[in-house]
Structures are given as C-alpha cells and as structure tokens.
C-alpha cells in the first residue's frame, strides 16, 4: 500500500506542479526578453555577473569542468542529464516546462541528437524559441567559419545557425586486421562484398560476426542511411518514407540475409553480452566514435592496439560513394540567457580549445580540432591502416538525403524492429509495421505525411 | 477544534487536488484560452496511440487486481492461521519489507532480475524461453511483469492490513464456526472473507487508482530497454507525451480527465458493491 500512497502523493504533486507552472505562465507573459541587444534576436537584459547553467551528458562533463577550472571568474553551474540520448526527449520535455513557467532555462545545453533544431528554433505555445541564433552577434564569424563544411547544416534554418556541432559521426567500416589476415579475407569496399564476405565467414568460421542490428541507431543511421534508403525524409513540413525504394529493399534483403547466416547479431553494442565478441568481430560498419566508445573502451570490446582499422565507408557497387551518420552532438545556447558573453566563451572553449581536443572521444566538428585529433589518433599507433584518410573520406561523404524532423527514427525501430527480430521475424516481415509507426509518429508530430 | 484538525487537509486538498482538477477541466475544453467543446477529446480519441494505451492499462488492471485480491486474501488467511507468534510476526515483516522501496528503485532492482544475462534467476527466465532482456520485456509480457513488480512492492502492506482486519473478527464468531464443525476453508469462505468485504473493496479502490496511473514502471523500463518498451505504453505516459513532446497541454488534460472519469466510475462501483459506506 505504501507505493500507492506515494504514487497518489506523487500525482498530486505533479498535478499541482502543472497547475502552478500554468498559473506562472499566465503571470509571466509580459516578463519576456526585451530587446535585440545586437544579438539578432530579442535577448534578455544582459548581466556579466549572471551565472550560466550548462547541461551536459556524462561524456561532456569533463570539458565543462575544464572550462570551470580555466575560467574561475566565470560563474557557472554544471548539471548532468541523459544528454537527450536515444530519442529520450528529455531536453524538449524540460524546456517545455520552463516555457510554461517562464523561467529556469539553462544557458547552454548539449544534446546527442542532431534533430533538436526542428523544435528548438521555433516558438512553442507563444514562448520565444529556445535556441538562440549564434551567427547574428553571439559568436564571431571567424570562429564559425572554422567548422568542417556542412557540419552545422542540420542546425541551420534560413541562414541562422541555432546550434554548433560538437563532433561528426560519419559511418566508416571498422575491421579487425588480425582476423582478416588469419582467415585470408580482404577488406570489403561495397555492400555487395560485405554480404559476400558474410557467406564465406558463416560457412568457414561460424560464430564470427560482421556487426549488430540490436541498436536502433545502427539499424537506421548506419545501414539504411548508408544505403541511401529514403525512409526518413523531410521537405518543408512534408515528411515521407519509402521502404519500397530499391535502396531500401536491397538493404532490407541484405540485413535479413546476414541475420539468417548469423553474421549479424541482435545484441546491442553496449550490452553485457556484446563484450563476448571482442575477438569475434571481423568487421562492422559503424560511426567514427566507435573508436573510443567500443574498441578502446575497457568496459566494451577493449581490443589491443594494432588490430583495428577504419576503412572507407561501404557503398552500393556502381553508385555514389556515400555513407550514413550517427548523431554528432550539438551545443545549443539559450535565447533567454542573461550572460551571452559567458555562453560564447564556453562554446568556443568546448568546441575548439586544446582541452576539447584532448578530451574528445569522437571526431571533432571543428576543423583545427579534428585535424589535431586525427593526427593524435594516428600517432597513437592504436589503429592499423589509413585511419586519418578513411575518417576524412567518410566525413565528407555523408548522404544528404536524410531528414531531420522533430522526432527520431530510433523510437520506431526500437519499439517495432528490435522486439520483432527477437521474436524471430525478419526485417521484410517487420517493414509494414515499422513504416506505419514512422508515418504515425510523423503525423502526430505535426507533419504532412506523403 | 474539529475544523482546526481538518483545515490543513482541506487547504492541501484544495491546493493540490481540487484546483489542479479545475485547471485540467479548463484546459481540456479550451485551446489557446478559447472554448472548443470536445475538440481536444476528439483529437485524443483519434490519436493512434490512445486505444492501444487504454488496452494496455485495462489488461494490466485486470491481471493486477485479480492477482492482488486473490493472493493478498489467501496469504493473509494463511498468516493469520499460523499460531506460532514469532513465525507469524517474521512472515508479516518479510511481506512488508519490499514495500519500503520507492517505486522507481524497485523497478531498477527488477531490471536486473529481468535481464537473463545478469539475473540471479536467469535459469527461471531461460526455462520460460526468455534468452534476452528484449524478449523478456516484450509487450505481451508487460502486464504480468508490471503485476509482479506492483505485487512485490505493494502487497505486503495490504496483507498486514488484512491480517489486522482478520484479528478484528470476534472470537465468539470464530468459535461458533468451529463448534459448528467448519474447517479452515469453510471458515474462510463463509465467515472471514465476507467480513473482509469492506477491506477488499478499499484495497480495490486504492489499487485501481494506482493501476490506472501506471507510469513509473513502463517509463523506467522504456529508458532501460532503449525504447523496446514503447514510451506511449500507458495512458499517463501518453498524457506526458502530449504535454511535453507535442507541447499540447490541452490534449494532455483531456486524457487526464478521461482517466479521472473512468477511475471515479470504477471506484463508485467498488464502493457500492463493497458496502464501504454501510455501517455495521
């Protein structure tokens, strides 16, 4: 019974909270930002002594702490949250509450999702858009020009840059040179060769694998995006998904084939079970950040130096050499901030400082930082082959046909495909339900579905 | 003096119960401050997630309430029948302990128990054909999983209450039953359970209120399973999504109001069927 009482009290508190924020919203309707202040939007009155609140995920906490240490005079409060990971929507949820109450917004937010601009750059329920345009006075043009070409495109609306890319996450082909040598295989360069390799591997070395389909980001961003499958496209406010397109069906067939022959497994790359594949993973397409998150991570595969290499991304034979992309975090600044000078100092530090390069776990989006990071990675002697060249190739070849609406493709994959595969169904069998779920989500998110 | 005692409760009830309800009613029938009749309700009914969520909650409620009632009454009768005092006390204490864990933390504990790769009872899960966490938390298994979690955290307290109620049954009545030749089963059937009717109704109402508000368990499971348990599984979750993902507080209020009406209707059923307001 105790839990019922707690739940009852919790509900009362939640309801009351909603009522209070509602009332506050009514009271504070006039207390919004006042003038342009030279920032290109109606900024709040600036106060250089005002403390800034920075939200980061666990991986970005060190860089925030480094800024605090390097700038003891800047008042800053660092709060960690889930980073909006996996389409959790916690960023949007919290901002919606602050919009209702008319106060409390953080000044800087890091999000692992690249699609937040779709809502953060828009006015919601009569409240000014949360994200501040950064290229109208908040940050210098010199600094903004230092990003890798196209890095900030997903956050750019009508020439206003609403967010800064922290890292790029192009998909490369990771391979284990030791295993390839041992088995006498070449590094596949096309999806066709990758599939053919899976048949050889399954026949001659059962138990060895070429990747996983157990994570929603892998299924969507690595395989379907990399295959130029037009299943997640946005044009204005019109959303479309086409699983019948040739690129989509070919990838569906490839995945079913490789799940059938056992070279694609269903464990998440971050599950306890995946660690067992440390010496069984022959190759896998995956984002650049697998370097630190999977291969050099003592809690994950922890592969010894001199075995793993990154090759250029896989593509369809005879077609464009493009690839997919898995996230790449984004920094947002609040349009409600009272200390935009401190905000810009923080953003520049988090993106381009020496400390940022040192602490980066993936390929930085800032050119100077990415050059230095790639050189450091290559010099470290951990990776075999042309690591620097392959990652650079991938960074410049992300397929631009993928859309960035306000919802994530990961949720439909997670709720339909992952349990469906676990229940023994094939991708082909799951496609109709998956397509319906994506379209339904687009519809309730306010898009016209084609 | 009576007013003084009840004033605190009344103030809190108004502030955190009645006013929010009135605000929700206002939101449910308006949009941008303008009266829109039942538009918000129509939108909610037309949402593709609404009826699956209703179905999920309904199935869970049936499984949970039936299991709760059966096992709580049975276990209370068994504990009451144990005459050795220290055994009876120890068992009641054991039943009560899991209830000391807060809702979310008990779900976290169950996350380990339900994952065959780390669970201490993995052999049981595997015996049921569940090889992975994704298989364990498949949508068809969720009513049973939520029932087990809710029973584990909540039933102990109810068993203790039922035990207290059983103690209140007059010794004369029990002795008369014994003299008439009633064994433990007949005594339970004809004497104890009918006399527990009000308490069972009370338990039904409270558990129904808790059950319709299913939120913490699927929410935590959804995040832990990286979305395999859908974020729109229950009605409360759907209301949450309406408010905070879609920024539609009016639709959210409409769902809350529907829940309120259904819960009050069902509670009224339990009150009248259970004779909760009848005096002995």
Would you give an account of this structure?
The complex is a heterodimer of chains A (450) and B (280). Chain A has 450 residues and is α+β, with helices and mostly antiparallel strands. Chain A folds into 2 domains: 52-168 and 327-365, D-Maltodextrin-Binding Protein, domain 2; 171-324 and 384-449, Periplasmic binding protein-like II (D-Maltodextrin-Binding Protein, domain 2, 3-Layer(aba) Sandwich), CATH 3.40.190. Chain A is built from 16 helices and 15 strands. Chain A has a 5-stranded mixed beta sheet, covered by helices on one side. In chain A, helix 1 (2-27) packs across helix 3 (90-101), helix 8 (216-226) packs across helix 15 (409-422) and helix 15 (409-422) packs antiparallel against helix 16. The model of chain A is unreliable at 1-34 (pLDDT under 50). Chain B has helices at residues 2-28, 39-46, 50-81, 85-96, 103-114, 122-127, 133-136, 142-167, 171-179, 184-195, 197-212, 216-224, 235-244, 249-274; strands at 30-31, 34-35. In chain B, a hairpin with a 2-residue loop joins strand 1 and strand 2 (34-35). The two termini of chain B are 28 Å apart. The interface between A and B is large, with 53 and 54 residues. Chain A: Residues 1-31 form the signal peptide. Chain A: It comes from Glaciihabitans arcticus. Chain A: InterPro entries: Bact_solute-bd_prot1.
**Based on helices, strands and strand pairing, what is the structural class of chain A?**
alpha+beta
Distance between the termini of chain B: 28 Å
Envelope shape of chain B: globular
- Number of helical regions of chain A: 16
Strand proportion of chain B, as a percent range, falls in under 5%
Query: What would CATH call the class of the largest domain in chain B?
Result: Mainly Alpha
Count up the helices of chain B.
14
- The tally of structural domains of chain B comes to 2
What is the strand tally of chain A?
15
CATH superfamily caption of the largest domain in chain B: MetI-like
Looking at CATH, which topology of the largest domain in chain B would you report?
MetI-like fold
**How many DSSP E strands of chain B?**
2
């Amino acid at each position: 019974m105790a839990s019922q009482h707690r739940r009852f009290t919790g509900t009362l508190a939640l309801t009351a909270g909603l009522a209070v924020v509602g009332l506050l919203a009514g009271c504070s309707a006039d207390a919004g930002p006042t003038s342009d202040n030279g920032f290109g939007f109606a900024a709040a009155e600036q106060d250089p002594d005002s403390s800034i609140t920075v939200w980061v995920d666990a991986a970005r906490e060190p860089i925030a702490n480094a800024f605090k240490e390097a700038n003891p005079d800047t008042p800053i409060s660092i709060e960690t949250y889930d980073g909006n990971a996996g389409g959790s929507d916690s960023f949007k949820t919290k901002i919606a509450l602050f919009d209702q109450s008319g106060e409390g917004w953080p000044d800087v937010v890091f999000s692992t999702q690249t699609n937040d601009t779709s809502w953060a750059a828009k006015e919601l329920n009569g409240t000014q858009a949360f994200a501040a345009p950064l290229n109208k006075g908040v940050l210098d043009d010199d600094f903004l020009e230092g990003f890798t070409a196209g890095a900030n495109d997903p956050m750019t609306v009508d020439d206003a840059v609403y967010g800064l890319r922290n890292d790029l996450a192009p998909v490369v082909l990771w391979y284990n040179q030791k295993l390839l040598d041992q088995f006498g295989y070449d590094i596949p360069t096309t999806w066709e060769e990758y599939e053919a390799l899976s048949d050889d591997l399954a026949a001659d070395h059962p138990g060895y694998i070429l990747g996983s389909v157990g994570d929603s980001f892998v299924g969507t961003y690595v395989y379907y995006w990399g295959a130029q499958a037009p299943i997640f496209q946005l044009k204005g406010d019109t959303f479309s998904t086409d699983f019948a397109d040739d690129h989509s069906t070919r990838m569906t067939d490839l995945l079913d084939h490789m799940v059938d022959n056992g070279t694609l497994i269903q464990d998440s790359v971050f599950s306890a079970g995946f660690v067992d594949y440390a010496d069984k993973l022959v190759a896998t397409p995956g984002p650049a950040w697998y370097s630190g998150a999977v291969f050099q991570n003592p809690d994950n595969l922890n592969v010894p130096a001199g075995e793993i290499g990154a090759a250029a991304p896989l593509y369809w034979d005879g077609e464009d050499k493009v690839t997919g992309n898995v996230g790449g975090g984004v920094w947002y600044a609040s349009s409600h901030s009272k200390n935009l000078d401190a905000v810009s100092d923080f953003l520049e530090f988090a993106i381009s400082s020496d400390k940022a390069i040192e602490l980066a776990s993936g390929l930085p989006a800032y050119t100077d930082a990415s050059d230095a990071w790639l050189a450091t990675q290559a010099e470290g002697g951990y990776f075999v082959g042309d690591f620097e060249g392959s990652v650079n190739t991938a960074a410049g070849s992300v397929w631009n046909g993928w859309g960035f609406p306000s919802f994530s493709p990961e949720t439909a994959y997670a709720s339909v495909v992952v349990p469906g595969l676990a229940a023994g169904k094939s991708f082909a069998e799951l496609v109709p339900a998956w397509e319906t779920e994506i379209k339904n989500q687009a519809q309730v998110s306010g898009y016209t579905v084609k | 003096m009576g007013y003084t005692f009840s004033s605190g409760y009344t103030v809190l009830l108004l502030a955190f119960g009645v006013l929010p309800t009135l605000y929700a009613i206002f939101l449910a029938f308006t949009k941008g401050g303008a009266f829109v009749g039942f538009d918000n309700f129509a939108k909610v009914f037309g949402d593709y997630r609404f009826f699956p969520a209703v179905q999920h909650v309904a199935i869970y409620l049936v499984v949970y309430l039936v299991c709760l009632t059966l096992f709580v009454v049975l276990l209370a009768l068994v504990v009451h029948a144990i005459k050795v005092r220290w055994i009876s006390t120890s068992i009641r204490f054991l039943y009560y302990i899991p209830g000391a864990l807060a809702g979310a933390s008990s779900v976290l504990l169950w996350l380990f128990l339900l994952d065959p790769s780390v669970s201490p009872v993995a052999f049981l899960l595997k015996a049921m054909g569940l090889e992975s966490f994704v298989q364990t938390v498949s949508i068809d298994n969720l009513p049973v999983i939520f029932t087990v979690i809710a029973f584990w955290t909540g039933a102990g307290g109810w068993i203790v209450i039922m035990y207290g109620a059983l103690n209140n049954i007059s010794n004369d009545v029990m002795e008369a039953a014994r003299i008439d030749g009633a064994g433990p089963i007949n005594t339970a059937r004809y004497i104890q359970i009918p006399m527990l009717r009000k308490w069972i109704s009370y338990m039904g109402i409270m558990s129904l209120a808790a059950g319709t508000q299913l939120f913490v368990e699927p929410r935590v499971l959804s995040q832990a399973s990286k979305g395999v348990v859908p974020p729109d599984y229950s009605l409360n979750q759907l209301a949450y999504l309406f408010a905070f993902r879609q920024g539609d507080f009016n639709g959210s209020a409409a769902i809350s109001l529907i829940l309120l009406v259904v819960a009050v209707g069902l509670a009224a059923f339990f009150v009248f069927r259970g004779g909760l307001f009848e005096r002995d």
